[in-house]
Amino acid sequence: MNSMATPGVGLAVLCVVLVGAAAAVYWVAQLGPVRVAPLAAARAVIQLAAVALILAAALAALWSSILVLVLMFGAAVFTAAQRAQAGRSAAWLTVSIGAGSVATLLPMLVSGVVPLQGVAIVPIGGIILGGTMTATSLAARRALDTLTERFGEVEAALSLGFLERDARMEIIRTTATDALLPGVDQTRTVGLVTLPGAFVGVLVASGSAAHAAAVQVLVLLGLLLAQSCAVAVTIELVATGRVHRQVSRHR
After folding, report:
1. Per-block average pLDDT, block size 10, for the chain (251 residues)?
2. 52 lies in which domain range?
3. DSSP states along 80-134
4. Are residues 55 and 77 in the same domain?
């Protein structure tokens, strides 16, 4: 089977043409500065080249693969904390992302379905971490925004005798559904609307549609569990006040 997108002159020329066409559309339609597309493309090439070199070395040994996952985990926590806009308290989101990731990756590895090899755990772990990070940051931000916007309702619930945790949970519980919706929709529409990256990657590498489908099902169902756990922990952290924003009571 012929490989797809083999590095070479043909690929380089096609990429230049695609970027040039994108820049031309920017210019003709006045979508913004023409340099946006070329600069984004150059950054993508540099970043992916660096990642490819790092992974080529890291995947050679299990310990270095685990180190890559640890770095990914740190980046995921940092990104989620930044998006949540909760100051230092956002460090608690480490628990959310950790809970979701461990709940999913541990049974995958213990069962032997995902072999304890760098070439397997890095891509699967990276996908799980990425999805968990997105759900966590979305859940935290939506919950905190809701508490800010509906602060009076929390006060009213407290005046009725609710515990502080319960009063907050009554207000933010629905935000969990919003945070989980992208992942649920992705699972519902897979194969009908989109072909996710894991499916395409395995299909191109192995040529087996059945193998690609099996890997994609594993990833999607793993994401459902990871995101559900992460969001559940996140709204609990917000409800108990561990993840919070400084909100003035006199507005």
Report:
1. 66 90 91 89 89 80 87 92 87 94 93 86 89 92 87 80 83 86 80 62 62 81 93 92 69 43
2. 10-60
3. HHHHHT-GGGGGGHHHHHHHHHHHHHHHHHHTTSS-SSHHHHHHHHHHHHHHHHH
4. no
Is 75 a domain residue?
A: yes
In 3D, which of 235, 239, 247 has the Cα closest to residue 164? 239
Half-sphere exposure for 187 (CA within 13 Å, toward CB): 15
CATH number of domain containing 228: 1.20.1640
Q: Angle, to 10 degrees, between the axis of helix 36-58 and the axis of helix 9-29?
A: 150
Closest CA to 198 of 118, 130, 104: 130
Asked whether 122 and 68 are in contact (CB, 8 A), the reply is yes
Question: What's the domain count of the chain?
Answer: 2
Please report which residue ranges of 150-246 form alpha helices under DSSP H. 151-159, 164-189, 197-206, 209-239
CA–CA dist 231, 97 (Å, integer): 9
Quick one: pLDDT at residue 51?
Answer: 81
pLDDT the model gives residue 1: 46
- Rounded to the nearest 10 degrees, how much is the dihedral formed by the CA atoms of 69, 75, 80, 81? 130
Does residue 133 belong to any structural domain of this protein?
yes
List beta partners, residue 194: 190
Does 121 share its domain with 77?
yes
Can you give the pLDDT at residue 3?
57
pLDDT for residue 41? 92
